[in-house]
Design brief:
alpha/beta, 8-stranded mixed beta sheet, 6-stranded parallel beta sheet, 13 helices, globular
Amino acid sequence: MKIGILGTRGIPNNHGGFEQFAEYFAVYLKENNHEVYVYNSHDHPYQDTKYKGVNIIHAFDPEFKIGTVGQFIYDLNCIRDARKRNFDILLQLGYTSNSIWHKLLPKEPVIITNMDGMEWKRSKYSKKVRKFLKYAEGLAVKSSDYLIADSIGIRDYILKTYNKPSELIAYGATVFANPKNTVLERYNFKEYQYCMILARLEPENNIETIIKGYVMSKSVYPLIIFGGLNTYGKNLQAKYGSDPRIIFAGANYNQEELNNLRYYSRYYFHGHSVGGTNPSLLEAMASNALIIANNNIFNKSILEKDALYFDNSADIEKLLNEDESFHLKQAFSEANIEKINSFYNWKTINSKYEQFILNKLKDNKN
């Protein structure tokens, strides 16, 4: 098949979960003899027209000049280009800024959309923006031939809200098998003697809830926070950065380094509360981390009983003060590694996507 992948800033990944999936899946498809095109922002660090055999199409993206609204123009430019390509399939990763252009989507290809999370629930957005995102979600459902949900919660939500089925396919991860504690020297850490957060610094990821609980605790283990210092992040740094135990380390996309840091952490905090299967959660599971997660359906449907959970800062404070859970690390880690090997490995996820897409392409031709 000839497939175009829209909705990301491009590959190789230097941004987030959708970009990481697009990279792995596009390369997988190429290795299985499909003709694959991925749309990249024009200013993506990777400027070649091929990546491991995958065709790269650079489209103008004015986000660097005009901010978030630039994403809408970028998606428009991608869709306009896609109209010329005679794709069999257009796979849209997310819907936030491309759904308003749905009437311009080419008519020939099968349109499949990964619905991402419930973007309109994100507290970082104003009421007006959240209202728009809910509207955009409905447009995406209406204009797509088929939908993919990355978690049980999202699948059930789409069915209940729009009475439309979606295929349940999560994200993938690779089990981390060769830890090297030399990475810790950069941060002057010792094995299992520090705590860690890795997330976009946004309110719905419960970053402040975790930090506040940590500050209230008597923990002697430093807390390192990886995430780009946006406005919200800078405010948190100004508010809590005076605590010498807290390190705001900024963004880090070095997977080898992050895998090692997760592996040797004492407690790994995962505060995401909006959306489906979060890639960083799977990576933490694959890195033997002992996870303390926000208590919600998305996290619990994946981690099940193999994690600790929190609802508020007091829960964090209590867990850290008692510090009685580290002995669970091995049992929890082994169970979570088994989940990765059985359900969330990239080979399985990529194969599920490929088969679903090929089946729908076949259905459409019959």
